[in-house]
Specification:
Elements (H helix, E strand, L loop, with lengths): L2 E2 L5 E2 L11 H19 L3 E6 L2 E6 H36 L1
Antiparallel strand pairs: 1-2, 3-4
Length: 95
């Protein structure tokens, strides 16, 4: 959403002049870049043994799957935390 100031200039995501990345976005981009560098450098196949199964994957694929599972768990825990905090605020308002 673009907001117009009294002087006729625009500000917001499409204004362009004041668009900056936050610390979390920069950290995420650096983390993704490091993950990509690690995956490019580690292409050898590895054998995984899990319970009764054994299979061979390239190390880069295993790294990517592990990162995605970790990100999904991290996101899920954040959603649960926000949900619990929201419920606690609602309960506090009721009392």
């Amino acid at each position: 959403m673009v907001q117009q100031s009294p002087g006729g200039t625009t500000s917001g995501a499409q204004g362009g002049r004041n668009a900056r990345l936050g610390g979390g976005a920069i950290t995420s981009l650096v983390g993704v870049a490091l993950l990509i560098i690690f995956m490019v450098q580690n292409t050898q196949p590895i054998t995984l043994h899990f319970l009764l199964w054994s299979f061979t994957w390239p190390l880069w694929l295993f790294t990517l799957v592990t990162a995605l599972v970790g990100a999904a768990i991290w996101f899920g825990l954040g959603v649960l935390r926000r949900h619990r905090r929201r419920e606690a605020r609602r309960e506090a308002r009721r009392d």
